[in-house]
Amino acid sequence: MIKYIEETTDFLKEKGFENPEIGIILGTGLGQLINEIEIITEISYNHIPNFPTATVEFHKGKLIYGIIEGKKAVVMQGRFHLYEGYSLQDVTYPVRIMHKMGVKTLLVSNASGAINLNFKKGELMLIDDHINLQGGSPLAFKGVEKLGTRFTDMSAPYDQKINTKLRAIAKEKNINLHEGVYASVLGPQLETRAEYRYLKIIGADAVGMSTVPEVIVANHLDLPVAAVSVLTDECDPDHLKPIDIDEIIAMAGKAEPEMILLFKELIKSL
Hints:
Layout: H1 2-14, E1 22-26, E2 38-44, E3 62-68, E4 71-77, H2 88-101, E5 105-114, E6 124-133, H3 160-172, E7 177-185, H4 193-201, E8 206-208, H5 212-220, E9 225-234, H6 245-269
Parallel strand pairs: 1-4, 1-5, 5-9, 6-7, 7-8
Antiparallel strand pairs: 2-3, 3-4, 5-8, 6-9
Helix pairs in contact: 1-2, 2-5, 3-6
């Protein structure tokens, strides 16, 4: 993997990706932050050596380099998921590339369902902790100790300094920012009523199909990371209706401007 990382990083540097400070991963239906970036260069995933290719129709599949709030940033417009058939190493490979290029802070967004029924669709949740229900670890491979500590500490996976700043920005900008625990499942099927009840019992406030692998690898690399969920639906097992993916994507788009404001103000302060 070290050889692959070097090949990919060298390729991107040749394409103009120079010394980025911020890494951003944009989740399902959350691509509008791109409009806030002064784009210097962009490249499709399928043109990048050793990179996976996004297969989900609402994920664009581009790596973008540019300036946002005066900072150089590399942005994933579209991420990878286990449910697309990738390995956990594939899903997290871009985080390793961002780190190798020099990124000092990683910001992650996702669309998720609200398990905590005090949270409503269209609102945001700052992730304070997570539960990994994806059935594996992106660190469970031979030679991982050459890239970072094998037994990575996860007592505080989300950077508390960044989270404190995000709370302060939300208060200042009158953004209703909840805080809670994110459960990451394999998917791609949505949860049953019994599964939603189980998630609530074990302490989850929201559920989705991403983010946790990338956060584990960020911690493996000592890369400060923060993540915000856009809550796109309410997972009430007693009043559950058939899922409408188009409605979820539309809700993500509706709530996205507040997430963009949070990220922009945070980047300005870093």
